[in-house]
Design a protein that fits this description.
This protein is α/β, with parallel strands linked by helices. It contains 20 helices and 10 strands. About 5% of the residues have low confidence.
Length: 490
């Protein structure tokens, strides 16, 4: 055991810094591991020793690249394809068959999956391969497979999609032959599997979720394995609660065996699958599914760059009709929305008929139904709010995010262009357009949109919160763009 060269206070202060900035928990019994990691990192960052390195992080305005380096040393994830095979077996034989059958019978054949703390991508690609093998008509499905991590270096490796032999231990050789190609001594993932996964920067300890803007809402399945054990007990409970709110009713959370605490994941119910740690979200009560009142047909604009013209006889923009009681309900519903209690918030809003004509309530209902995966209802309520105020860039942006979840890339693009016509400085709309362009194989357009966003972000302080960002800061968005733009080289 190495003799510590650092003071007890320095290690305590640095542990508190890590808990605040990254959510990582280093109790005194792990300070030896922490000191070893920082000692190795100090040389890369040009510091004389671990003490000088820690003092820099504690006293200076830390550069983003240094935080990336810190994350790479402290969050090295040991992973491989189809790790903990019992979980994938349970998904293939018990979870997905029923879920796919339900969606085949529905109007939208969609599936939403999130690999939180995805490391270098093996978990997310494993799920993509499983879906490719289970769904013969997969080209007719709208599948979202989001993979996020706090470590940008890991994300860049995941996006690259090239792996060594160590990532394939225990895997069926037939899977490697079918979905990988050997190039220059590395195994490269097949393009059709790579296209199924979207990688993004996300900090489970700091970033907002569920949220429409980062696509973490209304998930059918969430993987969160081998990450909660690095958090403090209180932080792990908060992360677990937020992940549960990101699930639709009846959704599934796949955890690691080492994190299989029923108390931590309560009130989720253990699936009982042999050898697997999978929990299910049970409906608290039936989610209200009330459509907005009928409204006159909406004439289309002559150009997607222009806002849709208002209908004669409609209330003026920003129309608000909620009385004192309605305002109290709206405030309480907003509080429940912020806590992730979507069904309760919806029930409150629908309890007062007057709120059905209040644009603020309609917009909130659109967000709530989107978080619950009821995308048709979400779009209906958002359109109703736009009938009251078509000059709201924020509501056009919200409709774009809902359309994107529905797989309507063209409609999403049109709504984003309307939002930017009304507010050219709408940073998140530029970022969303870049993502759509990248997905459609338009790298030059994606680069232009990312550059527009970064230019606007340079005018912001790093801790400024962004409109429609649910608490997202300018500094955090710069980090997200840097990862998202890796494939198009902004």
């Amino acid at each position: 055991m190495m003799q510590s060269l650092l003071s007890h206070q320095r290690l305590a202060d640095f542990s508190a810094f890590l808990a605040h900035r990254m959510g990582l928990h280093y109790p005194p019994e792990r300070w030896g591991d922490l000191e070893r990691a920082v000692t190795q990192m100090a040389a890369e960052l040009g510091f004389a020793d671990a003490d000088a390195c820690m003092r820099h992080f504690l006293s200076a305005q830390v550069e983003r690249t240094q935080i990336e380096t810190l994350a790479s040393y402290l969050t090295i994830g040991e992973t491989y394809f189809f790790r903990e095979p019992a979980s994938f077996d349970a998904l293939a034989t018990r979870v997905l068959p029923d879920l796919l059958e339900q969606r085949r019978a529905a109007s939208h054949r969609h599936l939403r999956i999130w690999s939180a703390a995805c490391s270098t991508g093996e978990e997310a690609y494993s799920m993509a391969i499983l879906l490719h093998r289970l769904i013969p008509d997969i080209q007719h499905w709208n599948i979202t497979l989001l993979a996020t991590d706090i470590n940008p270096r890991s994300l860049r490796k995941a996006i690259d999609g090239r792996y060594g032999e160590w990532s394939f231990r225990g895997i069926d050789p037939e899977i490697r032959r079918a979905y990988f190609t050997l190039r220059d001594g590395r195994w490269e993932i097949a393009p059709q599997i790579r296209r199924m996964v979207t990688f993004a920067y996300h900090n489970l300890a700091e970033d907002q979720y569920p949220a429409v803007h980062n696509n973490t809402n209304a998930m059918d399945i969430i993987f969160c394995r081998n990450v909660l054990m690095y958090f403090s007990a209180e932080r792990a409970r908060r992360v677990s609660a937020a992940l549960q709110h990101s699930l639709v009713e009846g959704g599934w959370l796949v955890a690691a065996a080492v994190e299989g605490s029923s108390e931590l994941f309560a009130p989720l119910v253990n699936s009982g699958a042999p050898g697997a740690t999978i929990y299910r979200k049970q409906p608290a009560f039936t989610l209200p599914m009330v459509s907005p009142p009928p409204h006159p047909p909406t004439p289309l604009a002559s150009s997607p760059l222009l806002p849709e013209p208002p209908d004669p006889g409609l209330p003026p923009p920003s129309h608000q009709v909620a009385g004192e009681q309605g305002q109290a309900l709206l405030d309480e519903a907003t509080r429940l929305y912020q806590k992730g209690e979507n069904a309760g918030a919806i029930a409150l809003l629908l309890a007062d008929p007057a709120l059905a004509d209040d644009a603020r309530a309609q917009t909130l209902l659109a967000r709530l139904y989107a978080n619950e995966g009821q995308l048709d209802l979400a779009a209906d309520w958002c359109r109703r709010a736009l009938l009251i105020d078509r000059l709201s860039a924020e509501r056009h942006y919200l409709l774009a995010m809902i359309r994107q979840e529905c797989g309507d890339a063209r409609g999403a693009t049109e709504s984003l262009k309307r939002a930017l016509f009304l507010d050219p400085d709408f940073i998140l709309a530029h970022v969303a357009l870049a993502g759509l362009a990248k997905a459609e194989g338009k790298p030059s357009e994606a680069r232009r949109c990312y550059r527009n966003a970064l230019a606007l972000l340079r005018e912001c302080n790093s801790d400024d919160t962004l409109p429609e960002g649910d608490g997202l800061t300018a500094g955090r968005l710069v980090e997200i763009i840097r990862v998202a733009s890796a494939e198009v080289r902004v």
